[in-house]
Amino acid sequence: MNLLKKLLLFAGILFKTTNLYSTAFSVTSLSDALIAGTLRTAITTANGSAGPHTITFNITGTVLLTSSLPSIVQNISITNAAALGTVIIDAGNTGLIPQHFQFNAAACAGSVVEKLVLNNGGMGAAIHLQSPAVSITVQNCRIGTNAAGTAAVRQISGIQISGAANGNHTISNNLIAGTVSEALLISNSINNTIINNYMGLDATGTNAIPMGRGIIMNNSANYNLIDKNVISASGNAGIELNRSSHNTITGNYIGTDKTGLLPRGNAWDAIGLVDGSNYNMIGGTTVAKRNVCCAGTSGIASGIAIKSGGGAGLTSSFNTVINNYCGVGADGTTAMGNANFGIYIGYDNGSQNIIGKPGLGNVVAFNLSGAIILENSGTQNNSIRGNSIYCNGPGSGAAAANIGISLRSSSNASVVAPTINAASNSGNIYGSGLASGDTVDIYYTDACRGCTYPNGKTYIATVFANGSGNWSYTGGITVGSTVTATVTKFNGATIAGNTSEFSPCSPIITLPVSLISFKALNSQQGVMLTWETADEKNNDYFLLEKSTDGIHFETIGKIDGNGTSISLSNYSYIDQSAGTGLIYYRLKQVDFDGVFEYSSVISVNIHSTQTVVLFPSPINSGNNLQLKINGLGEEEEVSIEIINALGQLVYTHTGKGSMYSLSTSEFSKGFYSIIIKSNNYLPTEKFIVY
Question: What is the CA radius of gyration of the chain?
Answer without folding.
Answer: 35
